Amino acid sequence: MSVMTQQFLFGHHPQPTAPFKKQLLKWVGNKQRFAHEIISFFPISYGTYFEPFIGSGAVLGTLAPQKAVASDVFAPLIGLWQTLVKDPATVKNWYRQRWERVAGLDKVTGYEAIKASYNGSPNPGDLLFLCRACYGGVVRFRKADGYISTPCGVHSPVSPASFDDRADEWHKRVRKTQFICEDFESVMERAAPGDMVYCDPPYVDSQTILYGAQAFSLERLFAVILRCKQRGVRVALSIDGTKQSGGKLCDARIPTTLFNREVFVNCGRSMLRRFQLSGKTLEGEVVHDRLLLTY
Question: What integer best gives the mean pLDDT of the chain?
Fold first, then answer.
């Protein structure tokens, strides 16, 4: 069912949010292309916006809220976002230095050197470049120690000048957001009646190879969402929907009374499957996300 059909059937009237296509980070599961569709199901008004699994920040960046709290337990990622808010020139310099380093070498050799630097001492600057340069943004972390194993992408990373423009635009959009390195439960417990929470956690069906270095319990998230709902906080959750062009409905064991509404959002062809199947066109691998709403 398309978003437009769902709007007709359920009387939904979307927020006037324009698409925002400039990614800052390449990240598997990135919602950049359809973040505006997700936002169209948000309430028209709310207090503070919370996003406790920030990742690439696609929904946050498209929404550009006036007051927000964004978080993750992944320290290098949060360090990157915090620096973008406080000192975007440093973020631009991080990217430029690594881009110039790779430009003076064979691309794969340069990429592997930066990956080795990150794996030796995880840091926001290396993570930034690796996300932009790795294959399809599919950043894989080894469960034992968080080691990044993703190979170099076939594309050429954007130029420093192009990245500078992106960083400046993103700084404007997230400058009113507080970024904190903290577990989702403690962050969501701060949300007050009338606030809005959007959750985009690791997906149960396919993303353990991507987020294996981080402990995550969907059951614990459901319990936190219930407490939010009970105190008047509205929550939207993106989670596994259908895969293989509708041929597979993912079983996420969703509590029957927790959510008031379920819609499906077309995410296009699976980048993870493209990575796993060596770049095939994958006409049969279209993915739809579930968007679950407590309101």
Answer: 86
- Domains of the chain, with CATH numbers? 3-293 (3.40.50.150)
Residues in the chain: 295
Other C-beta atoms closer than 10 Å to the C-beta of 218 total 17
Q: Which residue is associated with the tokens 């469960």?
A: 143
**Using one digit for the tens of pLDDT, what is the confidence trace for 239-293?**
987 654 445 566 778 999 999 999 998 876 545 444 444 555 544 446 788 999 9
The answer to whether residues 58 and 66 touch, using CB atoms and an 8 Å cutoff, is no
> Which residue in the block uniquely carries the two structure tokens 């936190």?
224
Longest CA pairwise span in the chain (Å): 57
HSE value, Cβ hemisphere, 13 Å, CA-based, for 136: 17
Torsion of the alpha carbons at 265, 262, 258 and 270, rounded to the nearest 10:
-30
**Tell me, what amino acid is at 104?**
G
What pLDDT sits at residue 8?
Answer: 36
CA atoms of 54 and 83, how far apart (whole Å)? 15
Instruction: Determine the Cα–Cα distance for residues 169 and 118; give it in Å rounded to an integer.
Output: 26
